[in-house]
Design brief:
This protein is of the alpha/beta class. The protein has a single domain (2-118), classed as Response regulator (Rossmann fold). The chain has helices at 10-22, 34-43, 60-68, 87-96, 108-118, and strands at 2-6, 27-31, 48-51, 78-82, 100-103. Helix 4 (87-96) links the parallel strand 4 and strand 5. The termini are close together.
Length: 121
């Protein structure tokens, strides 16, 4: 399984990579913002994308919308991992094409459970 993490925080990307590796997901690519994430998603097809919302250059909801325009990602799961917890933001995320919404700070076990569910494991 190939996973893409998109977050502007190096520390959070490191924590996510560690948690995913501990859960058996060893093929994890990192992107520093939405622009970087979109470029990487176009270059390689990932089985799952996890993205933050608030990032420079391109925010996560715009990224989700752009990725959903790519045929190879029409059915791939995209999880949003963010401090945003309002119903309005969740509605915008769903409208953009997000599969699920996880509020930071995340608990590694809960994150892995969500990843396993969307990947049908």
């Amino acid at each position: 399984m190939k996973l893409l993490i998109v977050d502007d925080s190096t520390m959070l990307r490191d924590m996510l990579s560690y948690a995913l590796n501990e859960g058996g997901y060893n093929d994890v690519t990192e992107a520093v913002d939405g622009v970087d994430g979109l470029e990487k998603a176009k270059a390689t097809t990932f089985d799952l994308i996890i993205t933050d919302v608030n990032m420079p250059n391109m925010d996560g909801l715009t990224l989700v919308g752009e990725i959903r325009k790519l045929p190879e990602y029409s059915k791939k799961p995209i999880l949003v991992l963010t401090t945003e917890r309002s119903d309005d933001m969740k509605t915008k995320g769903k409208a953009a094409g997000a599969t699920g919404w996880i509020v930071k700070p995340f608990v590694p076990d809960q994150l892995l459970k969500a990843v396993n569910i969307v990947l049908n494991k």
